């Protein structure tokens, strides 16, 4: 029987996970990236229809988050000309609804802040900034101490899922 795992709370760290720099009180949303394979459409001349074939390469990873108000660290990471590659780490409380126990969730990204969008000001409404990451070259997702997904542009030809690498694929590329 399957469990339902629900995310209850999140803290966010821009750069290093310094406990004094948590954004848990100003973070209003976090969107983990869509995981999607690149595909190529094929419409054979004599076939009965079109199909999309997976190219075994994932599309770019673009996590987003929203911070209430003005955040100096966020603005520094976006600074013109910085092109800095930084870690952004999110820690979460994930509740196993069947067992009632709490699990730690952790997502780590390495990339740059590529877009900073302020909200429109409306008196009496919360004002904040949406942040979008670009050049994401590393993504890890952990739930309850178990690696669910790890991908690194520089070192991993295919994503590692639940700690398992596709060794045969790597061998075919001459990487093992």
Describe this structure in words.
The chain is mainly beta. It has one domain: Pnp Oxidase, Chain A (Roll). Helix content is 7%, strand content 49%. It has two helices and ten strands; from the N terminus they run E-E-E-E-E-H-E-E-E-E-E-H. The protein has helices spanning 72-78, 167-172; strands spanning 5-14, 27-31, 37-42, 51-58, 64-68, 86-96, 102-118, 128-143, 146-152, 160-161. Strands 1, 2, 5, 6, 7, 8, 9 and 10 form an eight-stranded antiparallel sheet that branches. The chain has a two-stranded antiparallel ribbon with strand order 3-4. Strand 3 and strand 4 (51-58) form a beta hairpin. The radius of gyration is 19 Å and the shape is globular. The mean pLDDT is 90. Pfam families: Phage_tube. InterPro entries: Tail_tube. This is Phage tail protein.
Poorly predicted ranges: none
C-alpha geometry: globular
In total, the number of strands is 10
The CATH architecture category equals: Roll
Distance between the termini: 38 Å
CATH top level?
Answer: Mainly Beta
CATH level-4 homologous superfamily: Hcp1-like
Note the main sheet.
8 strands, antiparallel
CATH topology: Pnp Oxidase, Chain A
Count the helices. How many? Answer: 2
Helix share of residues? under 10%
Number of spatially distinct domains:
1
Strand content: over 45%
Protein name: Phage tail protein
Pfam families: Phage_tube
Organism: Bradyrhizobium valentinum
InterPro entries: Tail_tube (IPR006498)
């Amino acid at each position: 029987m399957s469990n339902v795992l629900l995310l209850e709370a999140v803290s966010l760290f821009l750069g290093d996970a310094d406990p004094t720099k948590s954004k848990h009180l100003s973070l209003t949303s976090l969107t983990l990236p869509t995981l999607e394979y690149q595909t190529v459409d094929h419409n054979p001349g004599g076939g009965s229809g079109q199909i999309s074939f997976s190219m075994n390469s994932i599309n770019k990873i673009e996590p987003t988050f929203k911070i209430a108000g003005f955040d100096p660290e966020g603005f520094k990471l976006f600074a013109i000309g910085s092109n800095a590659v930084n870690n952004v780490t999110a820690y979460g409380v994930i509740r196993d609804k069947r067992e009632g126990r709490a699990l730690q969730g952790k997502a780590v990204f390495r990339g740059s802040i590529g877009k900073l969008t302020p909200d429109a000001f409306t008196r009496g409404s919360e004002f904040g900034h949406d942040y979008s990451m670009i050049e994401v070259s590393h993504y890890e997702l952990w739930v309850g101490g178990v690696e669910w997904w790890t991908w690194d542009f520089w070192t991993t030809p295919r994503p590692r899922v639940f700690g398992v690498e596709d060794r045969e694929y790597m061998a075919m590329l001459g990487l093992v």
